[in-house]
Amino acid sequence: MIALSRWLPSSKQSTRTCAGYWPMTSILQPPQSPVDGVGMAQFNQQLVDSILSLQRFFTEVRAASSQKEMLELTLAHLKALLPIQNAGFYFPGETGLDFILQTNLTPEAASELNGVIDQAIESGAFGWALNHLRPAALKLDDGTTLVLAALRTRHRVIGVFAASFGFQLAAAWNAHSIVLATFLGCVADAILSDQLAGDLRDHNLKLDRMVQERTHELQNAKEAAELANSAKTRFLANISHELRTPLNAILGYTQILQGNEALDKESSEQVGTVLHSAEHLLSVINDLLDMARAETAAIEIAPVEMELRPLVEDAFRILKPRAEDKSIELQCSVGSGLPRIITMDPKRLRQILLNLGGNAIKFTDRGFVRLEISRRKNAIRFVVSDTGCGISQEDMPRLFQAFQQVGDSSRHAGGTGLGLSISQKILEIMGRQLHVKSEVGKGSSFWFEIESDAAEAESVPELASISTTDSALPPEDRETLPLEDFVRIKALAARGDVLALQQELEQLEGRSAAPGPMIRQLQQLASACKLRQIREMLDRHERHHPHC
Predict the structure, then answer these.
(1) Among 285, 288, 295, which Cα is nearest to 228's?
(2) Cα–Cα distance measured from residue 153 to residue 492, given in angstroms and rounded to the nearest whole number
(3) CA distances to 150, 243, 263, 525 from 240, in Å
(4) Which pLDDT score is estimated for 9?
(5) CA distances from 417 to 292, 293, 519 (A)
(6) Cα-based distances in Å from 134 to 159, 168, 173, 185, 445
(7) Average pLDDT, the chain
(8) Contacts of 114 (CB under 8 A, 6+ apart)
(9) Nearest to residue 182, comparing CAs of 168, 156, 161?
(10) CB within 8 A of 308, min separation 6: which ones?
């Protein structure tokens, strides 16, 4: 190890003469010794041999597997070309304040070389060699010559070559220095390339480890999130069942009390408040369960062949009382050219239409709410528009977020802010999108499209325009229920067992090839726990069909 506390020469060291050494000026211009013709011919032949061996040297150095092998190859080539007696390579240590011999030499040879390097540091020749492109040559006391040459790349010095030569080197120093600098430049570039390749490999390995660790973390986080979502869905499903059981009793007995003629007006209003609150709680439970399923993509889409017109009429019939309560005109327009049969999940399509229609009615005080169905090239477009308060541009980004209600805060009562979010989720699962256009004070329009084969020829009978003042809709009383089914449904409604009634209607729907409007209407009322309306509907059906 050569300490470098003095390796950079001072201005005095760079010009002073040390005993037994060439002056520093003689390093640049060594004394010219006469060379006879035979010696010159021999020198020229050596120079030609060195040029010829350079290509072979390039190939071998580039094929070397390590820095140590590169240095050994370099020494072997230089010893074959130049009269080298002792030589080695010095590289900076970890601190950068010392140079370490990294060549396999005998202890005696290493001690001798380190000794002359110490003298070179004292004289300033070592520092001079580090800062110049050309090798430095110093004549030693024993008549040999010490050569110092920096291993230099384009941007930095990576090491130093030190060698002692025979005295005859001085006569042909200029040519020898060129050969030496060329070989050392090649090996310096090869060493730097190997170092950079090693650094790149290490960096790539580090990146691979980081990617693997991050991927593992993300996978664990994903599994934890999926487990949490699954647990949440199971919890909501279970808790909703537990909540619906007592709520079923509340709804049943409240509706029985509401039909009690012995109640005075004030008591009847109080019972109506309880019934309204229970119905609202049931809708919240249903929305929360749908939202949990949507977040985990557990909402099932079961497309079947269905008739378009009955579904539209069902949605219109359910929305009609809400519009009449607010004295709003409810309109429906079904364009020409629509297929009579479409492939769709009727439950989800009805859910979306009711959500959009219910929102439109809630935020509209005057004018109309319009449901419009029209044909596009390969799709059917559903549009729900209104003349309500509209939505500001600032509220648009929050419109489809769960539990977010925008617009007039006075209208938020009675809602959870889940209707639009659930509708959007259902459409996303179907690969569709819910669009909106709105202007404050002028109303809003929501629309979406579902695929439809343009080749379907049988069209739905045109329903140009119907409204809440029309009586053109076919009543559900035209449908006749089988006697056994009617008796079971009426008995469940009389007991107020909403859950059993819902299950019975689902089984009845499953047994029917094409469920009629009465079954669908009963399902909607059962989902909302409106037992009084169910009983009235069954009584009316019994009057129209005496056989029941």
Answers:
(1) 295
(2) 94
(3) 82, 5, 32, 18
(4) 39
(5) 14, 16, 29
(6) 14, 19, 11, 11, 83
(7) 75
(8) 2, 101
(9) 161
(10) 334, 338, 339, 340, 341, 342, 373, 380, 460
| 538 CA to centre of own chain | 54
Strands 84-92, 157-165: pairing is antiparallel
pLDDT attached to residue 366: 86
Does residue 49 surpass a pLDDT of 50?
yes
Helix (H) or strand (E) holding 85: strand 84-92
Token pair listed for 174: 């200029």
pLDDT at 130: 84
What is the share, in percent, of the chain residues with pLDDT greater than 90? 6
Q: Per-residue pLDDT averaged across 337-358, rounded? A: 86
Give CA torsion, residues 150, 153, 157, 161, to 10 deg: -30
Please state, in angstroms and rounded to a whole number, the distance separating the CA atoms of residues 363 and 228. Answer: 36
Per DSSP bridges, beta strands 368-375 and 329-334 are parallel
The residue type at 140: L
Q: For residues 68 and 29, which has the higher predicted lDDT (pLDDT)?
A: 68
Which pLDDT value is given to residue 115?
A: 87
Do the Cβ atoms of 384 and 371 come closer than 8 Å? yes
Residue-wise pLDDT for 407-433, tens only, equals 555 544 445 567 788 888 888 888 888
Residue corresponding to tokens 């930095």: 156
CB atoms within 10 A of CB 7: 20
For 226, the token pair is: 């999926």
Q: Name the phi and psi angles at 165, rounded to 5.
A: -115, 165
Report CA-CA distances (Å) from 104 to 69, 71, 101.
11, 10, 9
Q: How confident is the model at residue 217 (pLDDT cuts 50, 70, 90)?
A: very high
pLDDT at 206: 92
Q: Is there a contact between 360 and 385 (Cβ–Cβ < 8 Å)?
A: yes
Tokens found for residue 467: 């409204």
Closest CA to 44 of 181, 171, 184, 186: 171
H helices within 346-452, ranges in order? 346-362, 419-429
Specify the pLDDT at position 18. Answer: 33
Torsions phi, psi for 302 (to 5 deg): -120, 80
